[in-house]
Amino acid sequence: MLNILDSGHGSNLKCSRRDFLSIGSLLCGGLSLEQMCRAGAKAGTGSLLRDRSVIFLFMHGGPSQFETFDPKMTAPMEIRSATGEVKTSLPGVTFGGTFEKLAPLADRMAIVRSFTTGDSRHDIKPLVHRTTNDANLGTMYARVAGPNHPETGMPRNLALYPQAVAPDAQPTTMKFGKFESTGSYSSALAPFAPGAGGNLQNDMKLSIPMRRLHDRRTLLSEIDQLRRNNDRDAVYAAMDPLRQLAFDTILGGLAEAFDLSREDPKLVERYDTSRIATPENISRKWNNYNNYVDNGQSLGKLLLMARRLCERGAGFVTVTTNFVWDMHADKNNAGMVEGMRYMGRPFDHAVSALIEDIHSRGLDEKILLVCCGEMGRTPRINKNGGRDHWGNLAPLMLSGGGLPMGQVIGDSSRDGSVPATKPITLQNLVATIMKSLIDPSELRLLTDIPREIMQATTEWESIRELI
Q1: Tens of pLDDT along 84-94?
Q2: CA 142 to CA 433: how far, in whole Å?
Q3: What is the mean pLDDT of residues 381-386?
């Protein structure tokens, strides 16, 4: 971690997080200089990498298929959406009643109604699972692309949690799985999580007041000159462009990607979900009250930051708020109607803002948004007004990425319990994402790619209607 402290506060070193530029894993993280040069060169040449990024919004807890994208309003009352339905821009297609802003944008989405995650356990299986070699899916991508963008220095793989934009938020829930897992891959390929702590941020800190940075840079240059005079081997020759990249990216624009104050205030307001589900309008009787608050205070700004990072070279951005979609109507969680006020309305507001923003910037060919959780919910509403765990069917929505949008893929049974058409599995989703980021034919030409990455990208079947 390299922290650069803004000198605007004089000698006071106890500054807020806004006063720090925190850029993790830029030039460290366990890779040698030679490895980093080689990875950067590979990623920056040829057509192996498609000019695309993925924002994966993980709906932790398990969203209901009925109250999101498959309301089943002709089914009996105990099955159909408890929030009603709203017509979309696609003829004959409706969404759950809280998705009023997303409904007009359905022509910019692909809704999968035959998606199954395979079991009803709380975990993070769409992101970290045996299908991803027990690593974050972004880590598999970074193993091919390299840890950092060769031109901007932006980490290829990032994870955004509430603390990235809301300093008072709780630490991210990891008890159901570690979002930053790297499996058998190098820890240097773990997602960089700004504002969330972690080994990279704690183990490699260099806090330098901005007024002293120039002097420190001069000193480093002088030391390097001495080294060059005594040792001109390839390692030191490779060091210069990397150090130049570090200074150029840190001082020349990479910090700006994490600074939402650089955006038009009207656009920030359009994304902002803090007024959609306010703390005072959330019942404190639920044990997950703080989770609901974190979600409402952070979701929109997290998605705005994700878009900014993708514009500057991020390849895979995991976005998740603290565990909120588990709507049992028990002592921990609200039921369907109340829960969708707390989670559905912020989701509707923030995701619609992202989709509109991406299209207005002409980024719909370059940024793919994926939204799903670890499972769906039971076909029947329980006696308390909630739905319980269900692994046989789950909602899945994709938008952008240059893929064919404006379609509903697959269908569910009449009671919304199982796929009525060919099931779309986690394996299909992983293959779709990897093929949207990496050219399989180019990958086949490489000899140093792990078997599981080669298999996921070149052998597994993607969602055929998309790729």
Answers
A1: 999 999 999 99
A2: 13
A3: 98
Question: Cα–Cα–Cα angle for 367, 241, 157, nearest 5°?
Answer: 30
Q: Return all residues near 8 (Cβ < 8 A) that are at least 6 apart.
A: 19, 210
SS (H, E, C) 184-234: CCCHHHCCECCCCCCHHHHHCCCEEEHHHHHHHHHHHHHHHHHHHHHCCCH
Tell me the C-alpha to C-alpha distance, in Å, between residue 367 and each of 14, 345, 398: 38, 23, 10
Q: Which of 84-98, 216-230, 246-260, 274-288 has the lowest mean pLDDT?
A: 216-230
CB-side exposure of 369: number of CA atoms within 13 Å?
28
Rounded Cα distance between 367 and 105, Å, is 16
Q: Residue 33, SS3?
A: helix
**Tokens encoding 46:** 């040829």
3-state class (DSSP) for residue 137: helix
Which residues, at least 6 apart from 219, have a Cβ–Cβ distance to it below 8 Å?
A: none
Tokens of 49: 């990498």
What letter does residue 438 receive in the DSSP assignment?
A: B
Residue 312 has pLDDT above 80, yes or no: yes
Residue 166 to residues 211, 288, 297, Cα–Cα distance (Å): 28, 17, 7
Place of tokens 């058998």: 184
Q: How far apart, in Å, are the Cα atoms of 137 and each of 131, 151, 432?
A: 9, 23, 12
Q: Which two tokens stand for residue 306?
A: 């994700």
| Whether 377 contacts 387, CB under 8 Å | yes
User: Which one, of 24, 317, 1, lies nearest residue 161 by Cα?
Assistant: 317
In the numeric block, the tokens 């692309």 are attached to: 145
Judged on CB neighbours under 10 Å (0-12, 13-18, 19+), 121 is: middle
Burial of 420 (0-12, 13-18, 19+ CB in 10 A): middle
| Residue 437: partners with Cβ closer than 8 Å, 6 or more residues away | 49, 50, 52, 53, 54, 141, 145, 315, 316
Q: Which of 439, 452, 426 is nearest to 58 (CA)?
A: 426
Joined together, the tokens standing for residue 286 give 């639920």
Residue 21 identity (one-letter amino acid): L
CA distance 22 to 197: 10
Give the whole-angstrom CA distance, residue 189 versus residue 179.
Answer: 12
| Amino acid letter, 166 | A
Tokens of 357: 């923003």
User: Cβ–Cβ contacts within 10 Å for residue 246, how many?
Assistant: 18
Distance CA(414)–CA(23), nearest Å, equals: 50
Strand, coil or helix: 250: helix
Closest CA to 31 of 182, 171, 175, 136: 182
Q: Which of 296, 297, 309, 392 is nearest to 344 (CA)?
A: 296
Helix (H, G, I), strand (E, B) or coil at 317: strand
Where does the pLDDT of residue 418 fall: very low under 50, low under 70, confident under 90, or very high at 90 and above? very high
Element (H, E) at 331: none
